[in-house]
Amino acid sequence: MSDQPINPPLSEMPDGMAEAIVAYALEALPPDEEATVAVYLAAHPEARALCEEYRAIVGMLPYAAAPSAPPPFLREGVLRSIRDERTRRRRRVSLPRFGYRFASAIAACLVLGLLVWNVGLQLRSDHDDPAASAASFWSQPGLISYEMLPAEAAPNSTGRIYLSPNGKQTGFAVSGLPILPPDKTYQLWFRLDDQTRVSITTFAVDPTGSAVMVLPVPPNSRSYVSCGITEEPRGGSPKPTGPRVLASLEWPAPATYSK
Amino acid sequence: MRVGNSDTAGAFAEDGAVSQAIAHRMTGASSISATDEALVAAVTRGDEGAIGVLYDRYAASIYSLALRITGDRLTAQEVVQDTFLRLWKHAKMFDRERGAFGAWIFAIARRRSLDVLRSRQRQAKIADGTFISDGGTLPEPSQADTSEQIVLAHVISQAVATLPLAQRQAIELAYFGGLTQQQIATQTGEPLGTVKSRMRTAMETLRTRLHALRPYPHHEEEVAR
Lengths: 259, 225
Description:
Order of helices and strands of chain B: HHHHHHHHHHHH
Oligomer: heterodimer
CATH architecture of the largest domain in chain A: Sandwich
Structural class of chain A: alpha+beta
Number of domains of chain B: 1
Number of domains of chain A: 2
CATH topology of chain B: Rna Polymerase Sigma Factor, Chain: A
Distance between the termini of chain B: 39 Å
Structural class of chain B: mainly alpha
Strand order of the largest sheet of chain A: 5-4-7-8-1-2-3-6
CATH topology of the largest domain in chain A: Immunoglobulin-like
Number of strands of chain A: 8
Largest sheet of chain A: 8 strands, antiparallel
Distance between the termini of chain A: 55 Å
CATH architecture of chain B: Orthogonal Bundle
């Protein structure tokens, strides 16, 4: 451990960036500013190091809450819910083979249908003004965001997914992703509550390994419960085939597309 | 282990034995028990006993955090349950290189608590000013607390409590209230620039005071890369 905090060249940061990094570490920025800071951090290791220091401090703040003991029965309740979850998983795994085949066939039809729908949506969105659409997305109230965590294939990456309150649009900001060879692309997936993966878009990152996009979400009667990004062959895949680079935990509030 | 009054949290943190104990606690290192990382690895293999040990280590802090944010004991219990269920399902996503396990699981619990808070639109409580803690009191140990946890809670709560009130308010409204800088400016009636400046000053102060406790000093290496 060093004796003194590191002293990055704060004077070289754009006006307001040091304050924005503090707020970023505290998750106290609106989505548009958060995305700006994420892109800046991706390109500036000294600022990223400072942000990590702030995050370490933020990680200690729960200890500043007045301590209270949970009721003793809660421990058994938690462990029981974990046992129940384990049992549910085992039941899913022990489905008869024909059940799997039937479910797989249905899932494949769904994925294909959704893929066609998604392509249609993207083609249609080409006629809209993407800049105006993106601006209105980032500024709308009630935008929900979740962190995406790095996987082994891109351990230094960071990402955040954003969802409009009506579930019709999504945005994301990623950084620290490796630049892929020309025959590869990144692909963003949403997972439905029945485990089906729905392709949202393919994308490339800029020379700093960053990307920020706003996209329509394919309508679905089921709820989206998490997201992930994988490496795929150029043009994308109908279902994930390559290594995962970023993924969110299961969202506390599943995203439902409202008509 | 000494747990008592000290002039400042910074002075307290300079105590070698104390900071060593705290560093051990934050990295999960202990001569008599498994590290947090080893326990999380065991959880990924389906070890229910490991999650029980992690519960004993962190449930009280998570419950306190959730209670502070939501102000409701039943909701705080739900947050604890939900947080550990998420840990069970997603333990493999924890990456030690990105920070301490405690910070990771606290972040999950905080976001869940804030989701509940926002869904119930309980911001009025914050606006009343009842949200701001009185601070500065020595924590009462809960049943699951270890002596290191008590010290850690003491040092950090003192470090926060001794911030100037306006700075502490800005940090607490952001962290425990889930408010953006703009929302804090609106709630407190202060100019946005003032809020930003206060938050930065407060964080720099905490960074200096709690520097000895940082468990992962690999930033210099990262800069060098």
